Amino acid sequence: MSVQDAAEFLKQRRAKEYPSANPIMLKPRKHAMTIEERLDNLERELAAVKCRSRWIIGGGVIVTIVGCLLFQLTLISIRTVLHGTLNVNTLCAKMLTIEDDAGKTRAQINVTKNGPRLVMGDEKGTIRTLLTADGSGPGLALIDGNGTLRTTLGCSTNGPELTMNDDYGMTRTGLTVDKDQNPRFYMRDDHGKLRTQMRVDKTAAGLSVMDANGKARAGITVGRDGPAVTLIDQNGKTRAAMSMDKDAAGMFIMDTNGRPVWAVP
């Protein structure tokens, strides 16, 4: 403590000892304290202040430790709610639901008895996207605003397949690769009947056109020997054909019994 601080402290103590504002009314104390005694009292008071400061600092440390413990308890509570474990890098839970500002569920991830599933919906609550992975393989479904399935993409034990549906959910076209690694593209009418099919295998590439009953009526193929065109009647019998190989070209017409009635050459 500086000399100025000590003088100020003595001045305050003197004011306490002589409370009257009128100096004429002041009476001298019988046992006035010397400067040394006053300094001793001052040192004792400073020691008491230091002691209280240590208690304040110790209390602050304790409060900090308690705050850290409460934070850890909060994290444990979150893990309990999620039925999993939570750390800086991983979030484990059985179901995760994401809502928009209006409180409507827009996306959900969960695991069903068939496998994991991701669902996403629009603002009206209609499911628009479904992603699954079950025992038959992964699959993606795209749904329109009316809730009608319009597009699917899957990969089953038979191979990958892409389908596109009409407004009524009827499959109208598709692209697939079969077990033999042969690609195939097909189109169906509004009754679900197969009307057109293109296929490529190890021996040839071909196009088939079917009637309303799903029967093949015309075909074009390109094989190892060359191209060929065939026309088929409603009974499934070839009535006309034209082909070409490396040596020659030919065309023939047959009757309803399958007997040639005209041929070139």
Description:
This protein has helices spanning 3-17, 35-82, and strands spanning 95-99, 105-112, 115-121, 127-134, 137-143, 149-156, 159-165, 171-177, 183-188, 194-200, 205-210, 216-222, 227-232, 238-244, 249-254, 260-264. Strands 1-2-3-4-5-6-7-8-9-10-11-12-13-14-15-16 form a 16-stranded antiparallel β-sheet, with no helix packed on it. It is an alpha+beta fold. The protein has three domains: 34-92, no CATH class; 94-165, Outer Surface Protein A, domain 3, CATH 3.90.930; 180-265, Outer Surface Protein A, domain 3 (Alpha-Beta Complex), CATH 3.90.930.1. The protein has two helices and 16 strands.
Total beta-strand segments: 16
User: How do the strands line up in the largest sheet?
Assistant: 1-2-3-4-5-6-7-8-9-10-11-12-13-14-15-16
CATH architecture of the largest domain: Alpha-Beta Complex
User: How many strands, what sense, and barrel or not for the largest sheet?
Assistant: 16 strands, antiparallel
- Which fold name corresponds to the CATH topology of the largest domain? Outer Surface Protein A, domain 3
Radius of gyration: 47 Å
Helix content: 10-25%
Which range does the strand content fall in? Answer: 35-45%
CATH class of the largest domain: Alpha Beta
Gross morphology is rod-shaped
Instruction: Tally the helices.
Output: 2
Number of domains: 3
Derived structural class: alpha+beta
Short description:
This protein has about 260 residues and is α+β, with helices and mostly antiparallel strands. Helices cover about 25% and strands about 40% of the residues.
